[in-house]
Design a protein that fits this description.
Strand order of the largest sheet of chain A: 1-2
Largest interface: A-C, 87 and 87 residues
Order of helices and strands of chain A: HHHHHEEHHHHHHHH
Order of helices and strands of chain C: HHHHHHHHHHHHH
Oligomer: heterotrimer
Strand content of chain C: under 5%
Number of helices of chain C: 13
Shape of chain A: globular
Largest sheet of chain C: none
Chains: A mainly alpha, B alpha/beta, C mainly alpha
Mean pLDDT of chain A: 80
Low-confidence stretches of chain A: 1-15
Distance between the termini of chain C: 47 Å
Number of strands of chain A: 2
Mean pLDDT of chain C: 84
Radius of gyration of chain A: 28 Å
Strand content of chain A: under 5%
Chain lengths: ~325, ~280, ~325
């Protein structure tokens, strides 16, 4: 490649001045990272500690089993059994609507999905629900449930339908949980490699049987994760409850049929109880508010921890471990 | 096959391909640049490289050959301390650059003097100009070099990499839209922009077609006067074509080290002869 | 015992065709619900817009008085009153949301970089669950802590008596303020951004990071210049999601930002941070008892329609912002 003779090597590559490799802005950047990271830890710790302290101060087991009563000062107003049960009822309604609907939607989007235009639209619709503020969903609920068609689902007096009931709140809360369930289920289904589907179809099973017998059981951890995340959102939601549940302290049933009358009536949940008892609501009893908030936070954190456990366990046996 | 290895020990060169092959002209000079002394590298319990001693000289192309998993890539990455990115890696022995132990240097500074080109072309998602100017801009010195100051070095690096003629008219073109061979040459230009003293190449042509491979091989030989070149390759013919010195590694050991002519013509070790004649690998 | 493996004369009830139709119908049910939502809300909102025209968005008069008038007119019979100028509410929403998103963006970016690259693994294993924990705390608890801790703190310690007196004839600076709202909102929306930013940073191809380090560029610059730039679609997605959350936050803001429809005035100086206000979503919540009065109902729906429209616009902006980035990247 070279010409015949070459003189002594032209240069040894000049040694560059050993310049600094870090500018001071780089060091500042990393310092900021550390400060902010630790700051967030501190904030979370502060919130949990604070609620813990207040909880220990104010929570007594009797509160969990006493009905709330109207009263003038804090010793007279009873506990929050009804709100606690209210949270339970509303969660059950919401999840029992959102789970089948969400899984069905996710399965259709992931396994069938024709015609394509409709599938894209449905995807966008689910995303739109995810992005809609819950207060708008709440107002939408009042529109639907105060219309005569669905009037039987909520209390009415003298022909005027108020549109507030456990049914209404539960139904709208299912919309809140829906995108989470759809998202998690889709992820779970898409993580299953295709050769599994092909193998099942190759032995003659219908697509639906494949879904039912193989895919859904395999995707179960994702479905469970999604459901628990949705449940967390449902338990923590206040806006829909305040607007659609009537915020009566106790269960205020309506009508005669045993279970239906509770569901048609109004009541409260832990979240609306906290809201009403804070200075923003009517009650202004901080001690009760703290107590209920503590129980609420404990429930939500327990759910969170459960999600982490499911996630970690599913990673151990996942397809790409 | 037995006849072939006997024939090769007669000094006629390997016989498995009969087409005439270019053999690079011997280098005119050699300046010691780096020296690896008794280097051993382990990933946790697994020993990747055992007790290797090698010189690396400017003016020569050093090729590291050997079957998969023999530790040649690990050794290459240790030369600019990229093995430190893996937390389980431990290194014993000494590697020096111009007499200074590289473990005592700032790794970032070291990597500017000993740069690396990887197997898969990986230009950044920027324009061609910005790719080459990247290192020049991100130096630690106080002032960022302006456009005028950058133009010269960028064009220089591109021409040393043999790419300038092809991309000259549009340096703003996104780098990811170039062909594979052009991208790899861009990566070489990017590495050259920092004016390194040693250039490490990790199987640079394995993902490329023969034409691009030839262009890059010519390029490497042209570069060897300015930069010490170490190339890891799977391709024995490539090593034969361009290397001045060859190191054959097997299972982490440096089995044989010698000039290309000697190693391919009359290897001392039996394992070398077997590998070259295709008995394994 | 699976029927499908045995040869059967009659087709299985759950044939694929039927299953597909059923599932498709359920999925389209969801679509129908969303469409119904949009249609119903806009229809219910129309009277308020119709009576006010574009002045709906403008300033004029005290929003609180207008609300009271509207409600009473429907409640007590008599002609409905519709006049409503929502500017203070819009301005308050804009201020709160923009400030929270801006602060949160910077904090989240640095924290995400910290988690992905610069934190030692012990710190990372603590920080990630902590962020998820923050994301799952219900907003009413944030509001409770805000109203019982932060608001009194601001009212008693950060605002001097002199300042309070100076504006006492208009509003009372008792701690329900913009500052409290922005502070808590930032903490609420940061976990969303952090999670998405982390995902984006993690999906940067390792080859580029190695190449940059191998060229002798230090870790900070490598990540800042290459990884952050490559993760720009994730940055946008996270910001859009967080903004949507901030816009729709009603409970916490209703508890903390003050219950006055007042437009904070930046020209007031430092007091500006401590002035109360009430964003759109909080307005709906605070006045939700008054839904029985028809004109009030329509006005509240109008506010909801504005929120809905903003959320949709946000998604669109996010999608549009990602398009030009496809040019330089292998994936966007």
């Amino acid at each position: 490649m070279q010409a015949g003779t070459i003189a002594a090597p032209a240069t040894i590559a000049p040694t560059r001045p050993a310049g600094p490799t870090w500018r001071w802005t780089d060091r500042v950047g990393i310092a900021v990272c550390w400060v902010l990271g630790l700051l967030f830890c501190a904030i979370a710790a502060a919130i949990v500690m604070f609620m813990l302290v207040q909880g220990i101060r104010y929570v007594r087991p009797s509160l969990l089993v006493t009905h709330p009563t109207a009263g003038f000062n804090e010793t007279q107003t009873g506990g929050f059994l009804d709100p606690l049960l209210g949270t339970l009822v509303v969660s059950v309604i919401a999840i029992s609507i959102a789970l089948p609907l969400g899984v069905a939607t996710a399965v259709w989007l992931s396994e069938y999905g024709r015609p394509f235009g409709l599938a894209r639209l449905t995807e966008s619709a689910v995303e739109m629900i995810a992005g809609t503020p819950s207060i708008v969903i709440a107002l939408f609920g009042t529109v639907i449930f105060s219309s005569p068609a669905l009037g039987f689902l909520s209390r009415s007096s003298g022909g005027v339908v108020f549109g507030r009931s456990f049914f209404a709140a539960g139904a709208m809360l299912s919309l809140v949980a829906l995108p989470l369930i759809v998202g998690a289920t889709r992820e779970g289904l898409q993580a299953i490699p295709n050769h599994l589907r092909e193998a099942s179809l190759a032995v003659g099973k219908t697509r639906f049987a494949t879904i039912r017998r193989i895919l859904l059981p395999t995707a179960r951890p994702s479905v469970v994760t999604g459901t628990m995340l949705g449940l967390g959102r449902v338990i923590g939601d206040t806006a829909i409850i305040v607007i659609l549940l009537g915020a009566t302290l106790t269960f205020n049933s309506s009508g005669g049929v045993p279970l239906m009358k509770v569901l048609r009536g109004t009541g409260s949940t832990l979240t609306s109880y906290v809201y009403q008892n804070s200075p923003a609501g009517e009650g202004n009893q901080p001690s009760k508010a703290y107590a209920a908030a503590f129980v609420l936070l404990a429930i939500v954190l327990a759910l969170n921890a459960a999600v982490e456990v499911v996630r970690r366990r599913s990673h151990a046996g996942s397809w790409n471990a | 096959m037995v006849e072939d290895s006997q024939a090769s020990s007669n000094g006629h060169g390997p016989h498995f391909v009969s087409a005439p092959r270019r053999r690079v002209k011997p280098s005119q000079f050699a300046i010691d640049r780096m020296l690896a002394e008794n280097v051993s590298i382990a990933y946790g319990q697994k020993q990747a490289v055992s007790d290797v001693t090698l010189p690396i000289r400017q003016g020569e192309v050093l090729a590291l050959i050997g079957p998969s998993g023999c530790g040649k890539t690990t050794l290459l990455r240790a030369l600019n301390r990229l093995t430190e990115l893996t937390s389980s890696a431990t290194l014993r022995g000494r590697i020096t650059l111009d007499g200074t132990d590289i473990a005592t240097m700032d790794p970032t500074l070291l990597r500017r003097r000993v740069t690396m080109v990887f197997q898969q072309p990986n230009p950044f998602p920027l324009s061609i100009y910005d790719n080459v100017a990247y290192v020049l801009r991100e130096q630690g010195s106080k002032r960022r070099p302006g456009r005028r100051a950058l133009d010269g070095p960028v064009r220089d690096a591109l021409s040393r990499a043999g790419l300038l003629a092809e991309v000259e008219d549009n340096l703003k073109h996104p780098a990811l839209k170039l062909s594979g061979g052009q991208q790899q040459r861009l990566c070489i230009a990017r590495a050259l922009a920092a004016q390194p003293e040693v250039l490490l190449l990790d199987e640079p042509c394995s993902a490329l077609d023969p034409q691009s491979t030839q262009v890059i091989e010519d390029l490497i030989v042209k570069l060897r006067d300015d930069v010490a070149v170490v190339i890891v390759t799977h391709n024995l013919q490539q090593a034969y074509r361009i290397a001045d010195y060859v190191g054959f590694m097997y299972l982490g050991e440096l089995v044989e080290y010698g000039s290309g002519r000697t190693l391919f013509g009359s290897p001392r070790e039996k394992r070398t002869a077997e590998y070259i004649s295709g008995a394994f690998g | 015992m699976d029927d499908a493996l045995l040869f059967e004369e009659r087709p299985h009830w759950w044939s694929d065709r039927r299953a597909e139709l059923m599932l498709g119908a359920l999925a389209c049910g969801v679509l129908a619900v969303v469409l119904a939502m949009v249609v119903f809300v806009v229809t219910a909102a129309w009277p308020s817009f119709a009576h006010n025209g574009l002045h709906w968005f403008g300033p004029g008069g005290s929003v609180d008085n207008q609300i009271r008038t509207i409600f009473l007119s429907g409640d007590q019979g008599g002609p409905f009153r519709w006049q409503f100028h929502a500017w203070p509410l819009l301005w308050s929403t804009f201020l709160t949301t923009a400030a929270a998103v801006l602060i949160s963006f910077f904090c989240s970016l640095f924290v995400a970089l910290f988690i992905v690259e610069f934190a030692p693994s012990s710190v990372r294993q603590v920080l990630e669950p902590v962020i998820r924990l923050l994301a799952s705390v219900p907003s009413v608890i944030y509001g409770l802590i805000g109203v019982l801790v932060i608001v009194p703190f601001i009212g008693n310690h950060l605002v001097s008596q002199h300042e309070k007196r100076s504006v006492a004839y208009v509003i009372s600076l008792n701690g329900y303020s913009l500052a409290a709202a922005v502070l808590i909102l930032t903490v609420m929306i940061s976990p969303i951004m952090i999670a998405i930013f982390c995902d984006g940073l993690r999906s940067v191809p390792r080859g580029w990071v190695e190449a940059s380090l191998g060229l002798g560029v230090n870790r900070w610059r490598t990540f800042w210049k290459i990884a952050v730039r490559t993760a720009r679609p994730a940055l946008i997605a996270g910001t859009v999601l967080a903004t949507a959350r901030a816009l729709g936050e009603a409970v916490m803001l209703a508890m903390v930002s003050g219950s006055v429809g007042f437009a904070p005035n930046p020209f007031d100086g430092l007091i500006f941070l401590f002035e109360p206000s009430r964003p759109l979503a909080a307005t709906i919540l605070s006045n939700s008892e008054e839904l029985s009065s028809p004109p009030m109902k329509h006005t509240l729906y109008a506010i909801a329609a504005v929120l809905l429209f903003s959320a949709a616009m946000l998604s669109l902006i996010g999608w549009a912002a990602k398009q030009p980035m496809k040019k330089y990247a292998v994936r966007a």
